[in-house]
Amino acid sequence: MKKKLLLHTCCAPCSTHSVKELQDQYDVTMYFYNPNIHPYGEYVRRLDGAEKVKQELSVPLEEGAYDVEWWLEMIQGFENEPEGGRRCDICYSVRLKQAAKYAKENGFDLFTTTMTLSEHKDAAKINSIGERFAKKFGISWVHSDFKKRDGFLNSTRMSKEMGLYRQSYCGCFYSVRSSIASPKE
Ligand code: SF4
Q: In the chain, where are the structural domains located?
């Protein structure tokens, strides 16, 4: 019997390749917990994308709370940090802590995140945050760097095939601002 893995899912495109990589070895469930996403309409659009991946890859999907006020409280004082800085460390922590808690409370053996697929995110940093919460909640963390082995290219191809929406900014209000200043795509 395969071990049960909770896959924190930041968005549909990043989940495509990540789910495929994990499905052979684990019984995967996606967990969409992203109170960082702004505005709410964008949140719904990304959640709809995850629903599409659920259908296409036959993988269960759970939605966490959209507790945006909690997220804003947590990043207070770090709003003007550059992307990849302290605000993002807190943002990863908020999401991975909740994923660890949810995994532990709902009988999962392990957890990990799709966030390491992004070329803009530091996988080593994300893995070390994941390990920290794994220890705190007494659950196992699956080390990942989904961008490796053409992961990013694969996700782009699969997203096109599935007709998924691809966002042009990371998620929060502050990343909208920086994507306008220097667009990524
Ligand atoms: S840029 Fe992305 S990772 Fe950083 S705080 Fe905003 S949503 Fe979170």
A: 3-181
Q: Residue with the nearest Cα to atom 6 of ligand 1?
A: 172
Q: CA nearest 171: which of 96, 102, 91? A: 91
Beta bridge partners of 113: 8
For ligand 1, the distance from its centroid to the CA atom of residue 66, given in whole angstroms, is 15
CA 132 to chain centre: 17
Name which of 85, 87, 94, 105 is nearest 10 in CA terms: 94
> For ligand 1, is residue 126 a contact (CB within 6 Å)?
no
Say how many Å lie between the CA of residue 3 and the centre of ligand 1: 30
Tell me how far the alpha carbon of residue 161 lies from the centroid of ligand 1, in angstroms.
27
pLDDT profile of the chain (185 residues), mean per 10: 97 98 98 98 98 98 98 97 96 98 98 96 97 98 96 97 96 86 53
Q: pTM for the whole thing?
A: 0.96
147 CB neighbour count, 10 Å cutoff:
21
Nearest-angstrom CA–CA distance, 111 and 139: 8
Nearest alpha carbon, ligand 1 atom 3:
88
CATH class of 3-181: alpha beta
